[in-house]
Amino acid sequence: GYELDAQFVMTDNLVLDGALGVTEYSLKDEAANGGPNLYPSQPSPTWNIGATWTQPTDNYGGFLINMSYSYVASQSTYPTSEGDSAYQLPSYGVLGARIQWKSSNGRNLVTLYGNNLTDERYRVASQVVSNLWTHSQFGAPRNYGLQVGMKFGW
Predict the structure, then answer these.
(1) What are phi and psi of 119, to 5 degrees?
(2) pLDDT tens across 50-98, in order?
């Protein structure tokens, strides 16, 4: 597999970033590794893109605005597509954004953020139990928050 990360400084205020990951593998000795069902495949490809705008102010510190999008390809939770435990996690994408203020001395920080802004419902893990039921763990739903930070001078 391979991974590529990039960051482009477009202006003093604008930075674009992204990453791509592609993974392939083959199990050389199934018996030595617990059999063929121990290691399902990884999602491939995975990628993300983002943009960050920073805007300093003269007397009040500066602002940062960031948007990002992450994509995860579909993934088998069982090494083969056959059998009563086979399940394919669908691909998904997640959009996030944040607005941040930082004081001019760098000691105070306030961030308003939103994750999974499109409220994508996606599974991060699943296990089929003999075609009777499917146990799944879902990713976080849309969420917003406010984070406040302060650095003390110790």
Answers:
(1) 55, 45
(2) 999 999 988 889 999 999 999 999 988 776 666 666 788 899 999 999 9
Contact 33, 40 (CB under 8 A): no
pTM, two decimals, is 0.83
Nearest to 147 by CA among 106, 115, 103, 113: 113
DSSP conformational letter for 45: -
Contact 116, 93 (CB under 8 A): no
Place of tokens 């083959």: 26
Kindly report whether the peptide bond that precedes residue 90 is cis, defined as omega within 30 degrees of 0.
Answer: no
Return the percent helix, strand and coil in the chain, to nearest 5: 0, 55, 45
